[in-house]
Design a protein that fits this description.
By secondary structure, the chain is α+β, with helices and mostly antiparallel strands. It has helices at about 20-25, 45-55, 75-80, 130-140, 165-170, 225-235, 245-255, 275-285, 295-300, and strands spanning about 5, 15, 30-35, 35-40, 55-60, 70, 95-100, 105-115, 120-125, 145-150, 155-160, 175, 195-200, 200-205, 215-220, 240-245, 310-315, 325-330, 335-345, 355-360, 370-375, 380-385. It folds into 2 domains: about 1-305, Gyrase A, domain 2 (2-Layer Sandwich), CATH 3.30.1360; about 305-394, Elongation Factor Tu (Ef-tu), domain 3. It is built from 9 helices and 22 strands. The strands form 4 sheets. A 7-stranded mixed beta sheet has the order 12-13-14-15-11-5-16. A 6-stranded mixed beta sheet has the order 1-10-6-9-8-7, with helices on one face. Helix 2 (about 45-55) packs across helix 7, helix 5 crosses helix 6 and helix 8 (about 275-285) packs across helix 9 (about 295-300). The radius of gyration is 21 Å and the shape is globular. The termini are far apart. The relative contact order is 0.15. Keywords: Aminotransferase, Methyltransferase, Transferase.
């Protein structure tokens, strides 16, 4: 066994604070406990922050996310065993979205993995699941020649998301080292990452995000985070860049049709219910062995049942929004029955009408179907629509 856990930070009482906490405080942020971290919910108006990301760009502190580095001769094999997707053919400098399944076919977490070298990866789990993912890698990796190194406590993550994000990054970019030897920011494609220097600060610059816009996520040591935030804020000031909190991040990701763990994803939810069936299908075709495979084969079969629930988008046909937990119904009186549940819902700031994601019986999931949603005792009509709700113009 060559697995090593270094600098492991266990779950603690009370929320942790990021290296940017004092910056947010000085900006007048309202805070919330999210995933065990005290994070900015909004700075002034979350709808204005949302619109700024769609029209210019928003600056986010995402330092609550986990960072786990996996390195060694069998790093790829460990990831192939521990996660649903395959990683051996992932090119250096590229990223992949995947999930970690449990032995019941539910999900420990969804996460992004960057291949930063031939035998080295950076795995980024969600804040609330970072400790669980680290423990699972430790257990699942005992037979592999690879090291597992927890870096969450020492790492900050700043995101710049929106149409002007690339121009802001370009203004402060000193150096970029793409895997193919290039140095032009335009060569950093979506779901790719490379070492970079911005204003003298070394970062891992990734073209990834959770808003539906073009943008970047920047991994940096804690001690450099305040200076990096100030650099990006100043460079973006005249372009309309504003600090944005978790409230805007949630409404942006919902418009973009992106799932949120604890809502559309969870330990008792099948990936086939959560809209990730194609990812699992590919794994079952191409991989002989990975944790959760047997349970996911059964889930694949169950997904063919007529009563199976699947994730859909809903467009409100009135002004009243549905919130998470609202029940989808059909029929009247004694014939009325539940056919689904809303997982996330908001009045969309971009589209001007309510939107929601929901689990619904597959027989009721055809695009264009009108479904009644019980909102505090009164039903409102919603139309089943394709996801995502919003796509940026190229």
């Amino acid at each position: 066994m060559t697995i090593q856990n270094q600098d492991y930070i266990p779950e603690t009482e009370g929320p942790r604070r990021t290296a940017l906490y004092e910056v947010h405080e000085s900006l007048g942020a309202s805070f919330t406990d999210f995933g065990g971290w005290e994070m900015p919910l909004k700075y002034d108006n979350d709808v204005a922050e949302h619109k700024a990301v769609r029209e210019a760009a928003g600056l986010f502190d995402l330092s609550h996310m986990g960072e786990i580095r996996i390195a060694g001769p069998e790093a790829s094999a460990l990831l192939d065993h521990a996660l649903v997707s395959s990683f051996g053919k992932l090119a250096v400098g590229r990223a992949k979205y995947s999930v970690m399944a449990n032995d019941r076919g539910g999900l420990v977490d969804d996460l992004i993995t960057y291949r930063v070298a031939d035998e080295e990866y950076l795995v980024v789990p969600n804040a609330a699941n970072a400790d669980a993912v680290l423990r699972e890698f430790t257990v699942r990796g005992t037979d592999f020649e690879a090291n597992v190194h927890e870096e969450t406590a020492a790492t900050s993550l700043i995101a710049l998301q929106g149409p002007v994000a690339a121009s802001v990054i370009a203004e402060v970019l000193d150096d970029l080292r793409l895997a193919d030897g290039g140095t032009d920011l335009a060569g950093l494609k979506y779901y790719a990452a490379a070492p970079a220097v911005l204003g003298g600060i070394e970062v891992l610059l990734a073209r990834t995000g959770y808003t539906g816009e073009d943008g970047f996520e920047l991994y940096v040591p804690n001690e450099s985070a305040p200076a990096l935030w100030a650099l990006l804020a100043e460079a973006g000031r005249d372009r309309g860049v504003v600090p944005a909190g978790l409230a805007a991040r949630d409404s942006l990701r919902l418009e973009a049709g992106m799932p949120l763990y604890g809502h559309e994803l969870g330990p008792e939810l099948s990936p086939y219910t959560s809209g990730l069936g194609k990812m699992v299908d590919a794994a079952l075709r191409n991989k002989e062995e990975f944790v959760g495979r047997d349970a996911l084969e059964k889930a694949q079969s169950a997904a063919q049942d007529e009563g199976h629930r699947i994730l859909v988008g809903l467009k409100g046909l009135s002004k009243r929004p549905a919130r998470a937990g609202s029940v989808l119904v059909e029929g009247e009186g004694e014939d009325r029955r539940e056919i689904g549940t809303v997982t996330s819902g908001i009045p969309s700031p971009t589209l001007g009408h309510p939107i929601a994601m929901a689990f619904v019986d597959s027989r009721n999931a055809e695009t264009g179907t009108t479904i009644a949603v019980d909102i505090r005792g009164r039903t409102q009509d919603f139309e089943v629509v394709d996801l995502p709700f919003y796509r940026r113009s190229e």
